[in-house]
Amino acid sequence: NDRAHEQLERLSAIGQISAGIAHEIRNPLTSVKGFLQLLQKEHDSRYWEIINSELEQAISTVQNLLAVSKPEKNDENWSSVNLCEILENTLSLFDHEMYRVKVEKRFYNTASMVLGKRNQLKRAIFNLLKNAFEAIEGEGTITVEHFRSDNKVCFRIRDTGKGIPKDKLSMLGTPFFSTKTDTGTGLGLSQVYSTFYEHKATINVESLEHQGTEFTIQIPMIDRFLEDKMQMELTIDNTMS
Ligand code: ADP
Ligand code: MG
Question: Where would I find the Histidine kinase domain in this sequence (predicted)?
Answer without folding.
Answer: 20-223
